[in-house]
Write a structure and sequence with these properties.
Elements lengths: L7 E6 L5 E8 L3 E7 L2 E8 L7 E7 L3 E2 L3 H8 L11 E12 L2 E10 L2 E16 L5 E12 L18 E15 L4
Length: 183
């Protein structure tokens, strides 16, 4: 995983064992949850200086799923994520603070062409070797964003007061990674 000169291990997200999920209030009474199935990224893990680690993630917007085809279509439309104009959601870390068991990753999240600073609170879930001898590492992280900060302003007023779609979006990631080729 680490090479002797830089002591940095580069890990690639394993999309088949990683999840990016979100939740947003619907009608002010319940939460609609969804996920993105196509996620790519790298983790540059500096073992002897965890704070110098870095994370880069790309999410294919078209892979959104909430379990409802009509809702997914609306979320992909120009009313929301506008997949035709903005096919990717990206995250690029700017700093990492803490230790593997409890850390904060600060970075830039770009959704729909709007970039904002966000902080992910996370922790390493563990390390292991799969049945084929491949090392793996897993992390979990969460954050809350305002969808309006990213130009996601579509909404409808409810007759009973309030709005159809809440502003606060809870984002949760659970990722597994494998060593990058050549590392």
């Amino acid at each position: 995983m680490s090479n002797a000169t830089s002591n940095i291990g580069t890990w690639t997200l394993d999309a088949s064992h990683s999840e990016v999920e979100f939740g947003v209030r619907h009608m002010m009474i319940s939460t609609v949850k969804g996920s993105f199935s196509q996620v790519e990224g790298t983790i540059h893990l500096k073992e002897d200086d965890f704070g110098s680690s870095a994370v880069n993630v790309d999410i294919q917007v078209a892979s959104i799923s909430t379990g409802n085809a009509d809702r997914d279509g609306h979320l992909k439309s120009a009313d929301f994520l506008d997949v035709e104009s903005f096919p990717l959601i990206t995250f690029r870390s700017t700093s990492v603070e803490g230790e593997p068991g409890d850390f904060r990753v600060q970075g830039t999240l770009e959704i729909r062409g709007e970039s904002r600073a966000v902080v992910l609170q996370g922790r390493e879930l563990g390390r292991g070797t799969d049945p084929w001898g491949n090392p793996r590492v897993a992390f979990q992280a969460d954050t809350i964003i305002s969808r309006k900060d990213f130009g996601l302003t579509w909404n409808q007023a409810l007759e009973t007061g309030g709005v159809l779609v809440g502003d606060e979006v809870r984002i949760s990631l659970e990722v597994q990674a494998i060593p990058a080729s050549g590392d």
